[in-house]
Amino acid sequence: MKAFWTVDGPRTASCVHRSQPVGPRARVRRRLKRMAAEAMLRLQGPPLSWARPPAVVGLAYHGVVQDRAEALSYYDPHLLTSTAFFDLQMELVSRWLRPTAAGDVRLSDACQAVVGFDDAFTIILRNAIPTLHRWRIPATTYVNDATTDGACLWHDVIGSACPSPTAAYHRVRELKGASVRQVEEAVAACGGRQRGPLDRYMSWDELRKWRAEGMEVGGHTTTHYILTYVDDETREQEVRGNRSAIARNLGVVPATFAYPNGDHDGPTRQAIKDAGYEFAYEVEGTGDGTDPLSLPRRNICDAMCTDEDGYFSPALFLAEITGMVPKPTRSAS
Ligand SMILES: [Zn+2]
Question: Which helix (H) or strand (E) holds 219?
Fold first, then answer.
Protein backbone atom coordinates (compact mmCIF):
# COMPACT_ATOMS: atom_id res chain seq x y z
CA MET A 1 0.00 0.00 0.00
CA LYS A 2 1.30 3.44 -0.93
CA ALA A 3 1.98 5.91 1.86
CA PHE A 4 -1.24 7.61 2.86
CA TRP A 5 0.11 11.09 2.27
CA THR A 6 -3.32 12.54 1.57
CA VAL A 7 -4.39 13.07 5.17
CA ASP A 8 -1.93 15.90 5.68
CA GLY A 9 -1.02 16.90 2.15
CA PRO A 10 0.50 20.26 1.17
CA ARG A 11 -1.62 23.38 1.58
CA THR A 12 -1.85 24.26 -2.04
CA ALA A 13 -5.40 25.40 -2.58
CA SER A 14 -7.54 27.89 -0.78
CA CYS A 15 -11.27 28.14 -1.36
CA VAL A 16 -12.97 30.93 -3.28
CA HIS A 17 -14.69 32.15 -0.13
CA ARG A 18 -11.45 32.39 1.85
CA SER A 19 -11.64 36.16 2.13
CA GLN A 20 -14.83 35.82 4.13
CA PRO A 21 -13.89 36.03 7.82
CA VAL A 22 -14.24 32.93 9.97
CA GLY A 23 -15.00 33.58 13.64
CA PRO A 24 -12.81 32.19 16.44
CA ARG A 25 -15.37 29.54 17.44
CA ALA A 26 -15.78 28.33 13.87
CA ARG A 27 -11.98 28.15 13.56
CA VAL A 28 -11.72 25.94 16.63
CA ARG A 29 -14.57 23.71 15.40
CA ARG A 30 -12.96 23.30 11.98
CA ARG A 31 -9.56 22.57 13.50
CA LEU A 32 -10.93 19.88 15.79
CA LYS A 33 -12.92 18.32 12.96
CA ARG A 34 -9.87 18.28 10.68
CA MET A 35 -7.65 16.75 13.37
CA ALA A 36 -10.28 14.08 14.13
CA ALA A 37 -10.60 13.23 10.43
CA GLU A 38 -6.81 12.96 10.06
CA ALA A 39 -6.55 10.73 13.12
CA MET A 40 -9.35 8.42 11.91
CA LEU A 41 -7.88 8.10 8.45
CA ARG A 42 -4.39 7.41 9.81
CA LEU A 43 -5.84 4.69 11.97
CA GLN A 44 -8.02 3.04 9.32
CA GLY A 45 -5.96 3.64 6.17
CA PRO A 46 -7.38 4.21 2.68
CA PRO A 47 -11.10 3.39 2.22
CA LEU A 48 -10.45 0.34 0.04
CA SER A 49 -8.59 -1.32 2.92
CA TRP A 50 -11.41 -0.87 5.45
CA ALA A 51 -13.11 -3.89 6.97
CA ARG A 52 -16.50 -2.57 5.79
CA PRO A 53 -15.91 -0.13 2.95
CA PRO A 54 -18.92 1.77 1.59
CA ALA A 55 -20.34 0.29 -1.64
CA VAL A 56 -21.17 3.61 -3.29
CA VAL A 57 -19.49 6.94 -2.53
CA GLY A 58 -21.71 9.42 -4.35
CA LEU A 59 -20.53 12.99 -4.92
CA ALA A 60 -23.18 15.57 -5.82
CA TYR A 61 -21.75 18.74 -7.35
CA HIS A 62 -23.47 21.79 -8.79
CA GLY A 63 -21.26 24.69 -9.91
CA VAL A 64 -17.48 24.51 -10.21
CA VAL A 65 -16.09 28.06 -10.17
CA GLN A 66 -12.68 29.60 -10.83
CA ASP A 67 -12.85 32.67 -8.63
CA ARG A 68 -15.01 34.86 -6.46
CA ALA A 69 -16.34 36.77 -9.46
CA GLU A 70 -17.87 33.57 -10.84
CA ALA A 71 -19.02 32.53 -7.38
CA LEU A 72 -20.91 35.76 -6.82
CA SER A 73 -23.43 34.92 -9.53
CA TYR A 74 -24.76 32.06 -7.40
CA TYR A 75 -27.05 32.71 -4.47
CA ASP A 76 -26.07 29.66 -2.48
CA PRO A 77 -22.40 28.90 -1.63
CA HIS A 78 -23.44 25.36 -0.72
CA LEU A 79 -23.75 24.76 -4.45
CA LEU A 80 -20.16 25.75 -5.25
CA THR A 81 -16.76 24.11 -5.46
CA SER A 82 -13.54 25.88 -6.49
CA THR A 83 -11.70 24.53 -9.53
CA ALA A 84 -8.59 24.15 -7.34
CA PHE A 85 -10.51 22.11 -4.76
CA PHE A 86 -12.22 20.10 -7.48
CA ASP A 87 -8.88 19.10 -8.99
CA LEU A 88 -7.55 17.89 -5.63
CA GLN A 89 -10.82 16.06 -4.91
CA MET A 90 -10.71 14.20 -8.22
CA GLU A 91 -7.08 13.26 -7.62
CA LEU A 92 -8.09 11.74 -4.26
CA VAL A 93 -11.02 9.93 -5.85
CA SER A 94 -8.80 8.48 -8.57
CA ARG A 95 -6.15 7.37 -6.04
CA TRP A 96 -8.19 5.96 -3.21
CA LEU A 97 -11.60 4.99 -4.63
CA ARG A 98 -12.96 3.37 -7.77
CA PRO A 99 -14.35 6.01 -10.14
CA THR A 100 -17.49 4.47 -11.64
CA ALA A 101 -20.09 5.78 -14.10
CA ALA A 102 -23.49 6.37 -12.45
CA GLY A 103 -25.14 3.68 -14.59
CA ASP A 104 -22.37 1.08 -14.11
CA VAL A 105 -22.66 0.65 -10.34
CA ARG A 106 -22.56 -2.92 -9.01
CA LEU A 107 -23.98 -3.19 -5.53
CA SER A 108 -21.53 -5.96 -4.59
CA ASP A 109 -18.44 -3.82 -5.24
CA ALA A 110 -16.75 -1.51 -2.73
CA CYS A 111 -15.82 2.17 -2.82
CA GLN A 112 -17.35 3.02 -6.18
CA ALA A 113 -17.03 6.79 -6.50
CA VAL A 114 -19.87 8.20 -8.58
CA VAL A 115 -19.53 11.84 -9.65
CA GLY A 116 -22.67 13.78 -10.57
CA PHE A 117 -23.47 17.40 -11.41
CA ASP A 118 -27.04 18.36 -10.63
CA ASP A 119 -28.95 20.85 -12.77
CA ALA A 120 -26.47 20.88 -15.73
CA PHE A 121 -24.88 24.27 -15.09
CA THR A 122 -23.14 25.61 -18.21
CA ILE A 123 -20.10 26.46 -16.13
CA ILE A 124 -19.12 22.81 -15.65
CA LEU A 125 -18.41 22.48 -19.38
CA ARG A 126 -15.38 24.75 -19.09
CA ASN A 127 -14.47 24.32 -15.42
CA ALA A 128 -14.99 20.60 -14.72
CA ILE A 129 -14.24 18.80 -17.99
CA PRO A 130 -10.43 19.37 -18.00
CA THR A 131 -10.10 17.97 -14.47
CA LEU A 132 -12.39 15.00 -15.20
CA HIS A 133 -10.20 14.16 -18.19
CA ARG A 134 -6.96 14.63 -16.24
CA TRP A 135 -8.02 12.08 -13.63
CA ARG A 136 -10.02 9.88 -16.04
CA ILE A 137 -13.23 10.18 -14.11
CA PRO A 138 -16.64 9.56 -15.68
CA ALA A 139 -19.42 11.95 -14.66
CA THR A 140 -23.13 12.47 -15.21
CA THR A 141 -25.02 15.72 -15.28
CA TYR A 142 -28.67 15.69 -14.27
CA VAL A 143 -30.86 17.77 -16.56
CA ASN A 144 -34.13 19.64 -16.14
CA ASP A 145 -35.36 19.88 -19.74
CA ALA A 146 -37.30 23.12 -19.01
CA THR A 147 -33.96 24.97 -18.73
CA THR A 148 -32.47 23.91 -22.07
CA ASP A 149 -33.96 26.94 -23.86
CA GLY A 150 -32.47 29.46 -21.40
CA ALA A 151 -35.33 29.54 -18.88
CA CYS A 152 -34.66 29.65 -15.14
CA LEU A 153 -35.77 27.20 -12.51
CA TRP A 154 -38.24 28.29 -9.87
CA HIS A 155 -35.58 28.57 -7.18
CA ASP A 156 -33.48 30.89 -9.40
CA VAL A 157 -36.41 33.25 -9.80
CA ILE A 158 -37.13 33.28 -6.08
CA GLY A 159 -33.46 33.49 -5.10
CA SER A 160 -32.58 36.38 -7.39
CA ALA A 161 -35.60 38.41 -6.22
CA CYS A 162 -34.43 38.32 -2.59
CA PRO A 163 -32.44 41.22 -1.11
CA SER A 164 -29.49 39.12 0.10
CA PRO A 165 -27.98 35.64 -0.39
CA THR A 166 -29.04 34.70 3.15
CA ALA A 167 -32.64 35.78 2.53
CA ALA A 168 -32.61 33.87 -0.76
CA TYR A 169 -31.30 30.73 0.89
CA HIS A 170 -34.05 30.74 3.52
CA ARG A 171 -36.88 31.65 1.12
CA VAL A 172 -35.93 28.85 -1.30
CA ARG A 173 -35.59 26.42 1.55
CA GLU A 174 -39.05 27.39 2.79
CA LEU A 175 -40.61 26.80 -0.63
CA LYS A 176 -39.01 23.37 -1.04
CA GLY A 177 -41.84 22.05 1.13
CA ALA A 178 -44.59 23.92 -0.73
CA SER A 179 -47.19 22.72 -3.22
CA VAL A 180 -46.82 23.35 -6.96
CA ARG A 181 -49.53 26.03 -6.73
CA GLN A 182 -47.69 27.87 -3.94
CA VAL A 183 -44.39 27.67 -5.82
CA GLU A 184 -45.97 28.99 -9.03
CA GLU A 185 -47.67 31.83 -7.15
CA ALA A 186 -44.34 32.81 -5.62
CA VAL A 187 -42.68 32.69 -9.05
CA ALA A 188 -45.43 34.83 -10.58
CA ALA A 189 -45.10 37.36 -7.73
CA CYS A 190 -41.41 37.73 -8.67
CA GLY A 191 -42.23 38.49 -12.30
CA GLY A 192 -42.13 35.04 -13.88
CA ARG A 193 -39.53 32.57 -14.98
CA GLN A 194 -37.38 34.77 -17.20
CA ARG A 195 -36.18 36.74 -14.21
CA GLY A 196 -32.80 35.78 -12.78
CA PRO A 197 -29.53 34.69 -14.32
CA LEU A 198 -30.07 33.46 -17.85
CA ASP A 199 -27.69 31.24 -19.77
CA ARG A 200 -26.99 29.39 -16.55
CA TYR A 201 -27.94 25.93 -17.74
CA MET A 202 -26.75 23.91 -20.71
CA SER A 203 -28.73 24.00 -23.94
CA TRP A 204 -29.26 20.79 -25.90
CA ASP A 205 -26.24 21.72 -28.06
CA GLU A 206 -24.09 22.14 -24.96
CA LEU A 207 -25.36 18.86 -23.58
CA ARG A 208 -24.29 17.23 -26.85
CA LYS A 209 -20.81 18.71 -26.31
CA TRP A 210 -20.81 17.32 -22.74
CA ARG A 211 -21.63 13.87 -24.12
CA ALA A 212 -19.02 14.22 -26.86
CA GLU A 213 -16.45 14.64 -24.05
CA GLY A 214 -17.37 11.14 -22.85
CA MET A 215 -19.74 12.24 -20.07
CA GLU A 216 -23.29 11.10 -19.39
CA VAL A 217 -26.66 12.76 -18.96
CA GLY A 218 -29.30 11.73 -16.44
CA GLY A 219 -32.88 12.71 -15.59
CA HIS A 220 -33.75 15.34 -12.96
CA THR A 221 -37.45 16.14 -13.81
CA THR A 222 -38.70 18.82 -16.18
CA THR A 223 -39.00 21.77 -13.80
CA HIS A 224 -37.22 20.68 -10.60
CA TYR A 225 -40.37 20.40 -8.49
CA ILE A 226 -39.69 18.40 -5.33
CA LEU A 227 -41.34 15.07 -6.18
CA THR A 228 -42.51 14.24 -2.68
CA TYR A 229 -44.80 17.32 -2.65
CA VAL A 230 -46.57 16.94 -6.02
CA ASP A 231 -49.66 14.92 -6.98
CA ASP A 232 -49.35 11.61 -8.82
CA GLU A 233 -50.14 13.05 -12.24
CA THR A 234 -47.58 15.87 -11.96
CA ARG A 235 -44.96 13.45 -10.65
CA GLU A 236 -45.44 11.15 -13.63
CA GLN A 237 -45.35 14.04 -16.12
CA GLU A 238 -42.19 15.45 -14.53
CA VAL A 239 -40.37 12.11 -14.64
CA ARG A 240 -41.56 10.63 -17.93
CA GLY A 241 -41.67 13.95 -19.81
CA ASN A 242 -38.10 14.69 -18.76
CA ARG A 243 -36.87 11.25 -19.78
CA SER A 244 -38.48 11.38 -23.22
CA ALA A 245 -37.28 14.98 -23.82
CA ILE A 246 -33.69 13.86 -23.17
CA ALA A 247 -34.11 10.80 -25.40
CA ARG A 248 -35.68 12.88 -28.20
CA ASN A 249 -33.06 15.63 -28.16
CA LEU A 250 -29.89 13.69 -27.38
CA GLY A 251 -30.73 10.33 -28.95
CA VAL A 252 -29.99 8.42 -25.77
CA VAL A 253 -32.32 7.19 -23.07
CA PRO A 254 -30.94 8.23 -19.66
CA ALA A 255 -30.11 5.30 -17.39
CA THR A 256 -29.89 7.21 -14.12
CA PHE A 257 -31.94 9.78 -12.25
CA ALA A 258 -31.21 12.24 -9.42
CA TYR A 259 -34.09 13.28 -7.15
CA PRO A 260 -34.50 17.09 -7.06
CA ASN A 261 -33.24 18.19 -3.66
CA GLY A 262 -32.56 14.50 -3.01
CA ASP A 263 -36.12 13.97 -1.73
CA HIS A 264 -37.88 10.67 -2.35
CA ASP A 265 -40.53 8.43 -0.83
CA GLY A 266 -42.37 5.23 -1.84
CA PRO A 267 -44.55 6.74 -4.62
CA THR A 268 -41.56 8.68 -5.99
CA ARG A 269 -39.32 5.63 -6.17
CA GLN A 270 -42.15 3.69 -7.84
CA ALA A 271 -42.59 6.44 -10.45
CA ILE A 272 -38.86 6.32 -11.19
CA LYS A 273 -38.96 2.55 -11.54
CA ASP A 274 -42.09 2.65 -13.74
CA ALA A 275 -40.41 5.19 -16.02
CA GLY A 276 -37.64 2.64 -16.65
CA TYR A 277 -34.76 3.95 -14.56
CA GLU A 278 -32.38 1.41 -13.09
CA PHE A 279 -30.48 3.70 -10.71
CA ALA A 280 -31.56 6.81 -8.79
CA TYR A 281 -29.43 9.00 -6.54
CA GLU A 282 -30.44 10.93 -3.44
CA VAL A 283 -28.52 13.65 -1.54
CA GLU A 284 -27.72 13.62 2.18
CA GLY A 285 -30.28 10.87 2.64
CA THR A 286 -30.34 7.52 4.37
CA GLY A 287 -29.30 5.28 1.47
CA ASP A 288 -26.52 2.84 2.32
CA GLY A 289 -25.78 1.62 -1.18
CA THR A 290 -28.03 -1.45 -1.09
CA ASP A 291 -31.09 -0.03 -2.91
CA PRO A 292 -30.44 0.97 -6.54
CA LEU A 293 -33.29 3.53 -6.34
CA SER A 294 -31.84 5.39 -3.34
CA LEU A 295 -28.10 5.42 -3.87
CA PRO A 296 -26.28 7.77 -1.50
CA ARG A 297 -24.54 11.03 -2.40
CA ARG A 298 -22.95 13.82 -0.39
CA ASN A 299 -23.44 17.41 -1.48
CA ILE A 300 -19.94 18.74 -2.20
CA CYS A 301 -19.06 22.38 -1.58
CA ASP A 302 -15.93 24.21 -0.46
CA ALA A 303 -17.14 24.67 3.10
CA MET A 304 -17.28 20.93 3.86
CA CYS A 305 -13.57 20.37 3.25
CA THR A 306 -11.98 23.69 4.20
CA ASP A 307 -9.66 23.74 7.19
CA GLU A 308 -9.46 26.44 9.85
CA ASP A 309 -7.14 28.57 7.71
CA GLY A 310 -9.21 28.40 4.52
CA TYR A 311 -7.23 25.64 2.79
CA PHE A 312 -8.41 22.38 1.28
CA SER A 313 -8.21 19.50 3.74
CA PRO A 314 -7.84 16.07 2.09
CA ALA A 315 -8.73 14.36 5.36
CA LEU A 316 -11.95 16.31 5.80
CA PHE A 317 -12.97 15.58 2.20
CA LEU A 318 -12.30 11.82 2.45
CA ALA A 319 -13.95 11.56 5.87
CA GLU A 320 -17.03 13.44 4.66
CA ILE A 321 -17.59 11.52 1.44
CA THR A 322 -17.05 8.10 2.97
CA GLY A 323 -19.47 8.75 5.83
CA MET A 324 -16.84 8.93 8.58
CA VAL A 325 -18.37 12.13 9.88
CA PRO A 326 -22.09 12.67 10.62
CA LYS A 327 -24.22 13.94 7.75
CA PRO A 328 -25.25 17.62 7.93
CA THR A 329 -28.75 19.03 7.78
CA ARG A 330 -30.11 18.56 4.28
CA SER A 331 -28.94 21.14 1.75
CA ALA A 332 -29.25 20.28 -1.89
CA SER A 333 -30.81 21.44 -5.08
ZN1 LIG B 1 -31.18 19.87 -8.72
Answer: strand 216-219
